[in-house]
Amino acid sequence: MGRNRQRPPRGDGIRHLGRRLGDSVTPSGLDSCPGFLNSKLVLQLATDDVSLQILPEFGGKISSLFDKRSRREWLWVNPGMKRKPPVYGASYVTTLDTGGWDEVFPSITPCELPDGTRIPDHGDLVFLPAEVSDPSGAGLTLSSVTRSMRARFTRTLHLQGNVLGIDYQLESLGDREHPYLWAAHPLVALEDGMTLELPTDRLTTSEGLDLEPANPGGCHIRIRDPATGSVPPHHLKCFTARHAASWARLTAADGASLRLDWSSIPHLGIWLNQRGWAGHGKEPYFNLGLEPTTAPCDNLLEAVERNEHFLLKPGETHRWSVRVTLGRGESSP
Question: Is 320 exposed, middle or buried (0-12, 13-18, 19+ CB in 10 A)?
Fold first, then answer.
């Protein structure tokens, strides 16, 4: 993983880093990202430990999660795809898979529900601009009204020290109930020798096949780069069993770590791509998706058929949260 060596911004606060197409201001940690400045507005949250960049025009994508202490950019950036304005209903993997952290709702893969509702590739939010409110030194709120169902999806981000907290709210705006699935979609840049730690060994593939347990009561997955010749290229999507995990930690060889904790969410989706797949026909990627999710599958229609979906009824508001801690390999709970 290439690490940015420029001096990051100091201190806490929120900054507007670019307002016009082609603005010459380049955020720390992202000067090498293809097409980064093809956005009219870039927001930054920063503390003395961590800086965070957000693109409201791209669904509120978090495009950078930079640890100033270790000089490490944790989010993967697609070197072969420039960022372009989203077109609702287009293919995500061929036009918007530029890296970073997206929010996926109400389905990951495209589908059509029995009532005729059509959901695009990776859902609504990746195609819709997010409205920004309540910006402060501590955080901000991003919200979007979805198209495929009448609902408002809201995230409140707050950064304190080395911890990013994200509070989610899904509010019904219609008079019908709607099934949905949600998944966080952070893509993490991998390095040879990293270790993924989970509190469970109960994993199934996206096809529902059980994986052989790695360690009873827990799981440590060692990441190897096929470029070294140590393993063949491959890719895999799997899920933890229902409520079998509420945290996951990725630790680099130098001890730097990224840990996710979540509440009120039953599954973790794991997309492990060891140079085995690319959506645009170029060099395959080396990245990891750590995706807290409501369902152990990517398709809402399949989730409904398996009774693994969530249901938003008229007048309801659903809430959940995710916390990200950047550290040096804290002990397990």
Answer: middle
Cβ burial, residue 236 (10 Å; 0-12/13-18/19+): middle
Task: Specify the residue for token string 């938003």.
Answer: 312
Residues 6+ positions from 203 with CB-CB distance below 8 Å: 210, 211, 219, 238, 239, 240, 241, 270
Residues 6+ apart with CB under 8 A from 112: 118, 119, 301
Tokens of 315: 């007048």
Name the pTM for this structure. 0.86
Q: Is 328 helix (H, G, I), strand (E, B) or coil?
A: coil
Residue 86 backbone phi and psi in degrees, to 5:
-65, 145
C-alpha to C-alpha distances, 80 to 33, 77, 140, 280, nearest whole angstrom:
10, 9, 31, 8
CA distances in angstroms from 104 to 241, 286, 287, listed in the order given: 20, 21, 18
Q: Domain-by-domain residue ranges, the chain? A: 13-333
What is d(CA 86, CA 155) in angstroms, rounded to the nearest whole number?
Answer: 20
Pick the CATH number of 13-333 from 1.10.3720.10, 2.70.98.10, 3.40.190.10, 3.40.50.880: 2.70.98.10
Residue 275 CA to residue 268 CA, distance in Å, equals: 22
Residues 6+ apart with CB under 8 A from 281: none
Tens of each residue's pLDDT in the chain, 333 residues = 344 333 444 455 555 554 332 222 233 333 333 333 344 689 999 999 999 999 999 999 999 999 999 999 999 999 989 888 999 999 999 999 999 999 999 999 999 999 999 999 999 999 999 999 987 767 899 999 999 999 999 999 999 999 999 999 999 999 999 999 999 999 999 999 999 999 998 888 765 555 555 444 578 889 999 999 989 999 999 999 999 999 999 999 999 999 999 999 999 999 999 999 998 778 899 999 999 999 999 999 999 999 999 999 999 999 999 999 999 744 434
